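Structural prep section.
Before we set up the soaks we want a predicted structure of the protein with heme C in place, mainly to decide which crystallisation condition to try first. Input record follows.
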Amino acid sequence: MKKLAKYLFIAVALLPGASVVATAAGSTHVESSGVNVNDTASLQRGAKWYVNYCLGCHSISYMRYNRLAKDLGLSEDQVMQNLVFSDAKFGETMDIAMSEEQAKAWFGKAPPDLSLTGRARGADWLFAYLRSFYRDETGGWNNTVLPNAAMPNVLWRQQGIQSPVYRQETGDNGFTRDVIDHFVLTTPGSQSPEEFEQTARDIAAFLQYTGEPVQLERKGIGVWVLLFLALFTFIAYLLKAEYWRDVH
Ligand code: HEC
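Run finished without errors. Recording the tokens verbatim:
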């Protein structure tokens, strides 16, 4: 019994520590996009950008407007007036009117549904992708994060037009080739570079949220779980002290 109590104590004492370490390890390279899914204002702005500039091509068919309203602290009226431009109803999913065949004919590739992209690619990737469109030599759009992407730079009016500056790089095979070193903004957009960064961050945040809407609750619950474990550790410690008093 004594032994059991001791092991129980050790196991419980280690638990909260273990989860804290796991959280810390899991978040090593997050944050560099500065995305914060608990920032409701950022999610609201991201949703607005999304329905205006992305939903024409990309559905988020796992997401319902009423769920969006609840999670983003919006009323049904606010959602229906500001976020729904189709004949979709409040309880419906965020679908698009374009069929896959039409999309393929227009873009050569159907724009993927972005329901899970926030999870698959991560917010940092999305943040980088949206800021990495540039005008290439052919006069068309290209993207360094997704080279030869079939997607046009839909936010170019906000961002402006950036052109690549190349540098020479020698590969393992001894050949030198031009690689893009950085971009220069050759035509300014309606937003300053800082404002556009925020726009890209808001959209990335929105897609990270839609990738797993329950994460808003999950993270809130996590805090309570840790508090509970801390309290339980304390109780277990008292129990241990009680048992050992008999021994001494
Ligand atoms: C005119 C149609 C169109 C619009 C509008 C559009 N996209 Fe795209 N998007 C595409 C197409 C086509 C692809 C496929 C690109 C490829 O794989 O070459 C794509 C690909 C993507 C991808 C890459 C998905 C993946 O995992 O490979 C992301 C992310 C994305 N779009 C985000 C957005 C966002 C955010 C917006 C709004 C700011 C947007 N798109 C607006 C057509 C569009």
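Observations: The first helix runs from residue 2 to 26.
Flagged for discussion at group meeting.
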